[in-house]
């Protein structure tokens, strides 16, 4: 065959071949993350991978006691070790000796007293990581061991553990008639254990001194500007002389960054004049960062003969551990949502957050809301059982809707399709029953090697309905700034919103694609030279940072379209951009975005700030929240009632999402949240007998694996847009975490008839004996 014939045949084949599938584009498409390939191949740079010329290594000495008075600290042996370049203690902190996310009450290094197991005492910089660790161990600390206060109920009467006292916050919520009473009353006492965020990637950082006497911190920070300000205060420097550069964040279910190592890291770099790196071991991570608040809850529900709620009374006690951190915020969420997404005309809630000598508690996804959800849903099951009503039906009779009023007095103005969500999961077909055949023994609780017998397995179906607030609360100033630049047909987004796995960088690309019709969009790395965007939690960046990107992109769009509109004598509102083409409403104008740009460089900066909120008053009343999101989950479990093993068979999820911006990403976030809830319900419990963290590793702390993940069925996503939110979208990842533990506990109650009043569910709580 001649070359000409072969070329002609190839051309014919190309014409006959189907056109390639267009790449996902803009809002509503499942645009893949830009860093997906690098993360899959293991080439994505995290903080633990960083290196610098002349690098030193750091190690932190932590207290082995939960409560002790420091008699003396002797660093001489550590300083004399070969290879040691610096040892710092509380005496070497040039600036503020205290720090903290919500309240500055936590010392950089303990000086007179240690208040929790793992509190930093000293830090060392050396030329080798092993040398640094040995030198830290060589620091001699003489302690006078004190009795720890580990029971939060004892904290009210105990001697003050902190100069600020033991009580961090008390919220007495009063709503309605205190004399109101129902025809039936159910009561319960509930306990929620301590969970750890357990980020899979190592917590690490690099500090590099600057010629101007400042320092640059390379961290997996989720709130770089707050971390910069905290560091600057501790280092005695102006904020402009401290720069935080965000490295890859290897998973974050909360504000994961542990300031008890990043502050010593910067101090060591300033002291030595050399770059200093620290990569925390898993034990150090458990000892250093904050955990979910263990909570004690007492409830009394009043209902009428039809199961409609009349009054809810509750006492909620949060164990904040040694320091305040974000406990005041967690308590506000717990008290405000103590009745759940139900209409409650009368509510009287007492909430406290107290200091103990337990490890510090802080922001973990769904804080406050998760603990109360487990309790109020248990109460709803008790009402259903007492009245002989289907558990889903009693929830439907009380379901909240838009226009209803929270116990805080705030009207729910956002979409609240609680009944619709609950009906969706209730009506979804149940999974088939397991068969008693050897080849399907793996379907039984405990797996094929389990000790149980098929005849002892009982199936249970339960429900959970949860709610969370989005953004900050009680007057928090939520603001974010973004810049969009366009040059040579490529758009760049500059925004200090950190990509923690929630998908912000992908969303930013989609927003610019949708608004400007430009396919190639890059999101710049984050550092504190950019304007602040706030913390990456509670759906903030989807709402606030995404809103800022949208506004900046629309301003660039106007710059792009104005010359064309002027030329054709029309308004820019009469022009639209679709698939990279600019067209007018009447079809007279038709050109491409590339032609319209014609080598121009366009840019704009914009801010997004949601409407203000207010603090709860002395009666727990106030418009404290910007918006809320809701979720309903039906859990199906199999329980071996002889040995207490639980297998979660299926979780059916319905959720209001406002608007689906990226279907694949949204589904992944919901599934991840539900799976995290499985761990909270069944396995995750950081044990701290007498304040000591027992087994601070992933052997002693049992995370759910892929083998523990149940079938997750997303049966309904309600797209009712929140008119005050950019794009109308809602946060999606926290509310499944809040709801799934309550649903699983409900299903175990249905299978066993046992009360199940503690999370995680212990095997003995699921065992059925003749007496029980």
UniProtKB/TrEMBL annotation:
<dbReference type="Pfam" id="PF01315">
    <property type="entry name" value="Ald_Xan_dh_C"/>
</dbReference>
<dbReference type="InterPro" id="IPR016208">
    <property type="entry name" value="Ald_Oxase/xanthine_DH-like"/>
</dbReference>
<dbReference type="InterPro" id="IPR037165">
    <property type="entry name" value="AldOxase/xan_DH_Mopterin-bd_sf"/>
</dbReference>
<dbReference type="InterPro" id="IPR036856">
    <property type="entry name" value="Ald_Oxase/Xan_DH_a/b_sf"/>
</dbReference>
<dbReference type="GO" id="GO:0016491">
    <property type="term" value="F:oxidoreductase activity"/>
</dbReference>
<dbReference type="InterPro" id="IPR000674">
    <property type="entry name" value="Ald_Oxase/Xan_DH_a/b"/>
</dbReference>
<dbReference type="GO" id="GO:0005506">
    <property type="term" value="F:iron ion binding"/>
</dbReference>
<protein>
    <submittedName>
        <fullName>Putative xanthine dehydrogenase subunit D</fullName>
    </submittedName>
</protein>
<feature type="region of interest" description="Disordered">
    <location>
        <begin position="1"/>
        <end position="37"/>
    </location>
</feature>
<feature type="domain" description="Aldehyde oxidase/xanthine dehydrogenase a/b hammerhead">
    <location>
        <begin position="41"/>
        <end position="147"/>
    </location>
</feature>
<dbReference type="InterPro" id="IPR046867">
    <property type="entry name" value="AldOxase/xan_DH_MoCoBD2"/>
</dbReference>
<dbReference type="Pfam" id="PF02738">
    <property type="entry name" value="MoCoBD_1"/>
</dbReference>
<dbReference type="Pfam" id="PF20256">
    <property type="entry name" value="MoCoBD_2"/>
</dbReference>
<dbReference type="InterPro" id="IPR008274">
    <property type="entry name" value="AldOxase/xan_DH_MoCoBD1"/>
</dbReference>
<feature type="compositionally biased region" description="Low complexity">
    <location>
        <begin position="1"/>
        <end position="18"/>
    </location>
</feature>
